[in-house]
Amino acid sequence: MVRGEKDSDCPVESAVKVLSGKWKILILWELRETPKRFAELRRGVTGITEKMLIQQLKELEKDRIIHRKDFHEMPPKVEYSLTERGRKLKPVFDALWKWGREQIQESS
Amino acid sequence: MVRGEKDSDCPVESAVKVLSGKWKILILWELRETPKRFAELRRGVTGITEKMLIQQLKELEKDRIIHRKDFHEMPPKVEYSLTERGRKLKPVFDALWKWGREQIQESS
DNA sequence: TTTAGCACTTACAAAAAAGTATGTACTATA
DNA sequence: TATAGTACATACTTTTTTGTAAGTGCTAAA
Fold it and tell me: Which of A65, A66, B35, B88 is placed for a possible disulfide with B81 were both Cys, Cβ 3.0 to 4.6 Å?
């Protein structure tokens, strides 16, 4: 944390801080049920570039929301999965999904 | 929507689209219980500038998540409140709040 | 009469996020 | 031998987001 910057005491604020951005929630949503490989995620998250994907994966790993498992194989095999902390986000995803679906239905 | 751009069929994706950014969730969080005036929001959302505040309020209004009520008084009085659609986000906020609090507790 | 407060608006600049294009090391398959 | 696929890395540019600073029109209080 930058000196002079106060750490947020508000849980919502601190949650938003690690989840905001265009891709993170979508990546986590892809991983909600099962671990996936880099290329699977690339195909699963429509529109994301490789650069953004690793960048976001790295940040999520640093925040201990996902775990990176390298199988040290050739050709390379790496698997990403939710950590315990990441799995605890399920209620958030569920609520978001429900809300999103309702809005889509309303507008049709 | 821009021509050629596919509307997301994923509820999570469409929800993220209208809620992402540094301030929106925080603004909505301020409004979760009671309507508030512009100046109250400015004081409540720590760190936000006036420019960002109206900008985000306008977008949220356009997305019909909040409602703007102008009392046509002098000095000006305007009140912002959640719409039905906005109130339905409560489960999202609750889940986010819980998760954020858990993470804060863990790290202490 | 100056100040403060209300709810903004605007021009401009800085910072952050995201995208493009290319390259790496390795292997298997055509 | 060329191509494709794995999982990235890096330089560079563009786009988007956010911030800074100032100003508007109005009123009430000091």
Answer: B35
